Amino acid sequence: MEIGHFKISGHSTKRNWAVYIFVATPKNKSKKKILYVGKVGDNRAGCNPVISRVGNHFSHNKIHSQIRNAIPDTENYDYEYFYCHFDEYNTKKDLWENGREKTNELERELNRIVQKNMNKATYELLNPFGGKSVSTADKKYRAKLLSKEEKEMLEKLCAKAL
Q1: How far is Cα 16 from Cα 90, in angstroms, rounded to an integer?
Q2: Tell me, what DSSP letter sits at residue 32?
């Protein structure tokens, strides 16, 4: 038996759009660290705090538990969660749709940045973004969604996690 403890930052309980990098470090040092890039904010509706998303990664519900699905022996790893809030979640349909589209692009861009910067000998990315083919109009639209400052913040988030 043992007594466990961890601290939860109040910041992680905010209901804001966010992207994150989950880092799973194996206790067996001969294995690679595992990365997962994600977002909070469902593609249909809703946006939970990042702390809720962390817990869902370890759920026994396969729909939510990308970490447990990839790492069945979760107790043999230690975990770090690096995240950044971008905008407040808003339930008004047009504002929600804009936030969702922007957050989807933030997640894609963060995934590209992680792939570019990670050492493949040290890390394995569970969900590499492959850059699905989209129309020229969609590419132009997506290019306008993120500001220079937001892209710089994603670079900083990646540097902190790696």
Answers
A1: 9
A2: P
* Predicted confidence pLDDT, tens digits, the chain (162 residues): 999 998 999 999 999 999 999 999 999 988 999 999 999 987 666 788 999 999 999 999 988 899 999 999 999 999 999 999 998 888 777 666 788 889 999 999 999 999 999 999 999 999 999 877 778 888 888 888 899 999 999 999 999 999
Alpha-carbon span 29 to 140, nearest angstrom: 43
82 touches 160 (CB < 8 A)? yes
Q: What is the largest CA-CA distance in the chain?
A: 58
pTM for the complete prediction? 0.92
